[in-house]
Amino acid sequence: MFRLVLGVIATVLLSLHAVLGFAQGVDDPAPLIEQDAAIKVSDHVYVILDDSRWSVPNVGIVIGDKATLVIDTGLGLKNGEIVLEEVRKLSDNKILYVASTHIHAEHDSGSGAFPQDAMMIRTSNQQQDIDEFGMSHAGRIAKQSKALEDILEGAFSRPADVLCDNKCSIDLGGVTVTIQAAGTAHTSGDTIFFVEEENVLFTGDVVMRRYPRLASPISGPKHWLKAIETVQSYEIDVLVPSHGRLGDASTVDTYKEYFLTIQSQVGELLNEGLAADEIAKRITTEIAPVVSDWKENGDRFIRSAVRRAIDEAAHTDNRLEIDT
User: Fold this and answer.
1) I want to staple 167 with a disulfide (CB 3.0 to 4.6 A). Which of 110, 180, 184, 283 is the partner?
2) Is the pLDDT at 87 greater than 80, yes or no?
3) Beta-strand pair 59-63/67-71
4) β pairing state of 95-99 and 39-40
5) What's the pLDDT score for residue 192?
């Protein structure tokens, strides 16, 4: 019952969040993944970059001698078809695995375009998110414009063919990918993918070069720092986030410092007796210039993290703000 109530709260807040500024304009074209744009980042790994476009993910393609793994398939079946076509240009492997870093529509809803014999891999936590939230995120996006409604027509959450309890590995032939549950950070079902032989880590929304989005009702600095510990257990040469520019191990350090700073300053200012609004204002003013290379106007994201840290410090169950 408790998890169900949190799900309802998340749905309401995410809907409000879209109305307040993240809805796409009614005349904007549907966000499509770039064709013929895959770049090779290591011997077995290709990435189609999002070019920082709204609702377009970085797509990963890991090619072994006998099988191929696709990580994130884009928004709707049309994007899934584009990704599948790009995969076919790069590999003629008959064995195909499909996976998502989390269940949000721009990452997961293209998977239905892949052939029936392609094997969908999910962690148990990600499957639990699907069981609870289904296609609700896609439904909210579809309401934002006719183009988005059209691109999401027929999309569905593809059921798991391979279910990892927490951590598992697949041998693609000459290259091995470890798949691990990392949530709760952005969502409860965050999943990361590590290409063993080449130290390439796909981090989803757990670590990026942009502001963290607290998209789960239990997201917050405490949980996110645990997810970062999981990420740091891997030796990283190339970090592929689900959005934005490629990074490396230093990208993880920046995220960790961001949340640790918020935690420590919240504790100090609470001890001084400051109110939540004043704490959020002070920390936002101090942190924003330090991470200005993240490009966005991130004040609302910092405030969200600060208020969640205040909740954690006070051991309350208030859910003040959720971002995607």
Assistant:
1) 180
2) yes
3) antiparallel
4) unpaired
5) 98
In terms of Cβ atoms closer than 10 Å to its own Cβ (0-12, 13-18, 19+), residue 24 is middle
Rounded Cα–Cα distance for residues 154 and 140 (Å): 15
Q: In the predicted model, is pLDDT for residue 15 greater than 60? A: no
In the chain, the percentage of residues whose pLDDT exceeds 70 is 89
Q: Which residue has the higher pLDDT, 27 or 282?
A: 282
CA 80 to chain centre: 17
Backbone angles phi, psi at 239, to 5 degrees: -110, 120
Is 40 in contact with 23 (CB distance < 8 Å)?
Answer: no
307 token code pair: 């208020």
> Is 152's pLDDT higher than 90?
yes
When pLDDT is averaged across residues 268-293 and rounded to a whole number, the result is: 91
Two tokens, residue 53: 């476009």
Determine if residue 134 is left, alpha or beta; phi over 0 gives left, psi from -120 to 50 gives alpha, anything else beta: left
Q: Which of 167, 184, 185 is nearest to 176 (CA)?
A: 167
> Cα separation of 3 and 18, whole Å?
22
Domains (range + CATH), the chain: 2-249 (3.60.15.10)
Residues 6+ apart with CB under 8 A from 84: 70, 113, 114, 115
